[in-house]
């Protein structure tokens, strides 16, 4: 959803403004955004994955582009100027999924890792092998919406008493063995929900997203826009809720004027999320669950 997301920021209205790509990844959004900036415009691109930063540097920068190696939860801590547009492309980037050693994929054999920032200490291996049964069950249920969380957590508990669970394929096979036949026959990989839950826990994805969105709203100039692509329901609910909370005004009856602190901070641009086009789905199957939401600073 490259064109839709960058287009939603209305860069043509203020090509010499300041913009943020909160999720650099493979730099596709950043480079398209740069191509639409004027000579005085500036783009700040964040990523907690040093590999993404290094890849962008290796392909060339210009003086309108600043790369920041940090979690997007810390947007407000870098002393940036007022921002005219910010975009998020949430979840794991394709390079992270496709490199087995990162441990994100249940299809590629690797040590359990799932860290987006390789300098942090918590890994999926530690969670799987040390978290108590109740914590595992809570994570799988809350972050993966896995209906068989209890059975999977119990199976993990039994297996790790014998030997540690070391790899992605080991864990994926264990998950399959814990599920009833009716669940195994359903569409989609049976380990998908648990792997999602582990990834979210390792990287504190939902907490970081909430903090980042609230910071972004405060950093936007009037008329500045925020565009967010999410790929799973938990992220989308957070985006929808924060946009809703900041676009509604609950004014006491009879109040003659609305104080500034009670005015809506946002105007929601699209009431229903924008979905990937059929043409994009033909070339990018990962976009089938993508939802784009857009709001504007009042």
Automatic annotation (TrEMBL):
Purpose: Specifically methylates the N4 position of cytidine in position 1402 (C1402) of 16S rRNA.
Record's keyword annotation contains DNA damage: no
Protein family according to the UniProt entry: Belongs to the methyltransferase superfamily. RsmH family.
HAMAP family from the UniProt entry: 16SrRNA_methyltr_H
Enzyme superclass (EC): transferase
Pfam families: Methyltransf_5
GO molecular function, one term: rRNA (cytosine-N4-)-methyltransferase activity
Keywords of the record: Cytoplasm, Methyltransferase, rRNA processing, S-adenosyl-L-methionine, Transferase
SUPFAM superfamilies: Putative methyltransferase TM0872, insert domain (SSF81799), S-adenosyl-L-methionine-dependent methyltransferases (SSF53335)
Family matches, as InterPro entries: RsmH, SAM-dep_MeTrfase_MraW_recog, SAM-dependent_MTases_sf
Name used for this protein in its record: Ribosomal RNA small subunit methyltransferase H
Organism for this UniProt entry: Lactovum miscens
């Amino acid at each position: 959803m490259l064109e839709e997301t960058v287009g939603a920021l209305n860069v043509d209205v203020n090509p010499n403004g300041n913009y943020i790509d909160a999720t650099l990844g493979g730099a596709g959004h950043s480079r398209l955004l740069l191509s639409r900036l004027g000579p005085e415009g500036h783009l700040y691109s964040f990523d907690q994955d040093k590999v993404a930063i290094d890849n962008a540097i290796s392909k060339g920068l210009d003086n309108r582009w600043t790369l920041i190696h940090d979690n997007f939860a810390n947007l407000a801590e870098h002393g940036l100027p007022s921002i005219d547009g910010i975009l998020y492309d949430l979840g794991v980037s394709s390079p992270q999924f496709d490199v087995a050693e990162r441990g994100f994929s249940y299809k590629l054999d690797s040590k359990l890792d799932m860290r987006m920032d390789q300098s942090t200490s918590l890994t999926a291996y530690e969670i799987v092998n040390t978290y108590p049964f109740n914590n595992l069950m809570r994570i799988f249920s809350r972050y993966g919406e896995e209906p068989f969380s209890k059975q999977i957590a119990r199976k993990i508990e039994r297996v790790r008493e014998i030997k540690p669970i070391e790899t992605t394929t080991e864990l994926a096979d264990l998950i399959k063995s814990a599920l009833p036949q009716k669940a195994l026959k359903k569409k989609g990989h049976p380990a998908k929900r648990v792997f999602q839950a582990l990834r979210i826990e390792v990287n504190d994805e939902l907490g970081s997203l909430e903090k980042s969105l609230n910071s972004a709203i405060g950093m936007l100039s009037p008329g500045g826009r925020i565009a967010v692509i999410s790929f799973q329901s938990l992220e989308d609910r957070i985006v929808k809720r924060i946009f809703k909370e900041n676009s509604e005004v609950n004014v006491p009856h009879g109040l003659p004027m609305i104080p500034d602190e009670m005015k809506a901070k946002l105007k929601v641009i699209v009431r229903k999320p924008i979905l990937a086009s059929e043409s994009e789905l033909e070339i990018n199957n990962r976009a089938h669950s993508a939802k784009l939401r857009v709001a504007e600073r009042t």
